[in-house]
User: Fold these one by one.
Assistant:
Number 1:
Amino acid sequence: MAKKLLLVDANILSHALTPNQTGSYVELFKELEKEYKFVVTGYTQYELTCSSDKEHRQKINEFIRHNMVYVELSDVLMNFASRLFYLYQKHPGTKHMRIGTGDIINAAFSIAKPCCLITIDNNDHPKPFFQEVDRIRVKYKSKKNHNVTDTLYILQPDIPNTKECFTNHEV
């Protein structure tokens, strides 16, 4: 049976690459990889490496290369992302939301493919365009040894509704 694609948001990878959280996220990835093949976009890689020195950029790039399917930022993807951004500006449910460029690009890929995505911030992938499929809690110790729990969301695009919104808003 072929594994489903799961687009991994930058915030998930950022947590996974933080030393005190790595072990907990490795366990999460082991469990998820039974069902999913992980995907990362070029923009996510860009976001992760922007504030990294040479050593950390190499680690990030190596991690992505060995553990994920990498999707380049093609003209087709970027064109669709720009149309989605326009739709978010026009739709009453997202008109006043500030959704980052990387989240819009990831949303566009998720909708176009279609595939699920995993994120810590489900507000960046709002209804009516996405639906929650699963909610996962990841526990770890903070740098000051406090118990921390992250809530992660697996979301899937609502393709029929998105198509209708594109038509209704003449995108």
Number 2:
Amino acid sequence: MSQKRTRQHRGFTLIEMMVTITIIGMSMSVFFGSGTNMLPQSRLKATATAIGDSMVRMRTHALFARKTVVFHYDLETESWGADYPFEFDDDHVLLGPGRTEVIPPQTAKEGMALDSVLVIGSEDARDEGKVEIIISPLGQVPPHDVVVLNPEFPELEVYTIRFPGLLNTYEVHSGRLEPVELTDADFR
């Protein structure tokens, strides 16, 4: 006596699941892909992290290349980038004074702004024009803070990126930070 079993409730096959997940993924990439749909706080944090990561990368580059690198913040165009303070040809032969781009200008996420740069020990924070930070061949920079914000809510959505002078790292803090006083202990 053979009994035939019939399945009334059939589940999804692996291929059907993969096709469904692929379609959902493609739909989400179209919707979220440009980054303009990100929440402003997320775009602000992404901008702060991108600036910090660029500085760390250039400090490491200066150290391994054993060359001075100039990292510049352009507060008018909301961008940052890095150059060698001399000119190379295509074969990396030194031609003399000039500029050779190390990283092209990077811009802040849409709707975000570079507000100011304060080099610790200087008089005031710069809030316009270009600010150049010299990265030594040892990877050292003057300690400085960079403030990024959402211009629509400048008091609520603001981050300060703090770069210490000797360590190749950075910290991102919510809000504006008070400038720090450097002491001899900072250099020991």
Number 3:
Amino acid sequence: MRRRLVIAVTCVALFGCAASQYKFTCSEQACEVETAGPATLDFQREFGQTVTVVETKDGRVTLEAAGARETLAMGETKALGPLQVTVTNVKGENAYFTVKG
């Protein structure tokens, strides 16, 4: 099963824009994710979970899922509820990571 999703910009009238972009591809039991800014990623079909990118700054990304919250730097792997997340790169507000069920 392969899934590819791209979601882009959310703007609030009169108050400017809050850029939130992400894309992910899934195959087998893993999804490769690229994000720019905060985002909510719907992995219900793949893992029965939603993953929220809370913030990306100072070379780290903060993620939430299943009531768990973790901050990871490049190269780190941590459990996020029933999911395993590995961060492959963080550049400014861009975060690249793998999610496994």
